[in-house]
Write a structure and sequence with these properties.
Elements (H helix, E strand, L loop, with lengths): L1 H10 L12 H6 L3 E5 L5 E6 L5 H7 L2 H26 L6 E6 L10 H17 L4 E7 L5 H8 L5 H5 L1 E3 L4 H8 L48 E5 L4 E8 L5 E9 L3 E7 L13 E9 L6 E6 L4 E8 L8 E10 L3 H23 L1
Parallel strand pairs: 2-3, 3-4, 4-5
Antiparallel strand pairs: 1-2, 6-13, 7-12, 8-11, 8-13, 9-10, 9-12
């Protein structure tokens, strides 16, 4: 373990990495940043999830540069801990993290993005295992348990115990651990930029959609699990059983030679094959130029049942289509799902009590 740690530090040129200048696209669009200190003097790092263009960043920067950038962030935080140790006259060795999950959506569940984020988490776990003090998740949407379930296996049990999902009273909770003057105005404190910006954009990057001028590749190489030939004038259906609401169907596919139709349906009769017109259409069928750009997408299942992914070639009277595809069913993390549900119920009770007063 120590040997690997030393090798990684050498590979990343850790002693000089603070002076490394990331590519422009990372500097401009990789969201997050260090801002303020908690009541114990520990640095605070913000991760801003919603505006992060995960697909754009992977098409514009190398994975190695993304890893190196995250390593640089970690080294900067450790350097800040050392400064706080000298300033306060006591050991400061850990970091507070705040994950703003507002805007977390299906686009963030794009498989290559999840895999890349997993590598970043693994790097953090392997090289900075005792650095995290506490991680607060704020503004978590209903999709959060699914997203968390995808990445939690990259985290140690010790790290998982430090993750706290906050409810609607998150501003009050944050102020128990952080003085208001150390929290940006946008997060309920009084800290702002010299020009009065409440977001403290001089310290926190809020990301955004990446212009295509930064793209260095059109697509990422994708390995597909299945290959099927959809004959001319016909369709191919694959079924997935969803046992409870909140699961996410995620797919990637490409066709050879020409476009192919695709839609998602919910069966109305179990145990028999149904035509498209006999099922409930949940994602309208349309033709995709998947022979030019591989298609990826996802759908949150609001009800349990048998879902049918249908590749449509009924409109082609001349050509069969070869379709390569991968489909996954993403399950929510039950513990965090229950936690969010409890937080919502608590806030609903408070609203009801306030209404009766």
């Amino acid at each position: 373990m120590i040997r690997k740690y030393v090798e990684v530090r050498k590979h990343m040129d850790a002693d000089n990495i603070i002076n490394w200048c990331p590519p422009e696209v990372i500097q401009k669009y990789m969201s997050g940043g260090m801002c303020g200190y908690d009541r114990d003097g520990c640095p605070i790092w913000y991760e801003i999830i919603g505006p992060l263009d995960a697909k754009g960043i992977l098409l514009s920067a190398s994975k190695q540069d993304l890893l190196k950038n995250k390593y640089r962030d970690c080294e900067m935080l450790l350097q800040e801990c050392d400064k706080q140790t000298q300033k306060l006259g006591k050991r400061v060795e850990v970091v507070m993290m705040i994950y703003d999950c507002e805007g977390l959506g299906l686009k963030h569940l794009w498989k290559p993005a999840v895999e890349a984020y997993g590598e970043l988490l693994s790097m953090f776990e392997e090289n900075y295992p005792e650095t995290l003090k506490r991680l607060f998740v704020i503004k978590a949407p209903k999709l959060f348990p699914v997203a968390y379930n995808l990445i939690k296996h990259f985290l140690s049990e010790d790290t998982r115990k430090k993750i706290v999902v906050l409810g609607a009273n998150w501003k009050e909770v944050l102020q128990k651990y952080i003085a208001p003057e150390e929290i940006p105005v946008v997060y309920g404190g009084t800290l702002q930029d010299p020009d009065g910006n409440p977001k403290c954009v001089t310290k926190i990057n809020y990301g955004g959609d990446i212009p295509k001028k930064y793209y260095v590749r059109d697509q990422l190489k994708q390995q597909y699990e299945h290959l099927v030939v959809v004959n001319r004038g016909s369709s191919h259906q694959v079924e997935y059983e969803i046992l409870f609401p909140g699961c996410v169907l995620r797919w990637q596919f490409m066709s050879e030679g020409a476009d192919v139709g695709f839609g998602v349906y919910l069966k109305t009769r179990i145990g028999e094959r149904q035509r498209a017109g006999e099922m409930m259409e949940v994602l309208p069928n349309q033709r995709y130029n998947a022979h030019l750009v591989p298609e990826d997408g996802s759908f949150t299942c609001s009800v349990a049942g048998i879902y049918v992914l249908r590749f449509d070639n009924t409109y082609s009277y001349l050509h069969a289509k070869k379709v390569s595809y991968t489909v996954e069913v993403l399950l929510p993390d039950k513990k965090s799902e229950e936690q969010i549900q409890q937080l919502e119920e608590t806030m609903n009770e408070l609203d009801l009590n306030n209404a009766h007063q």
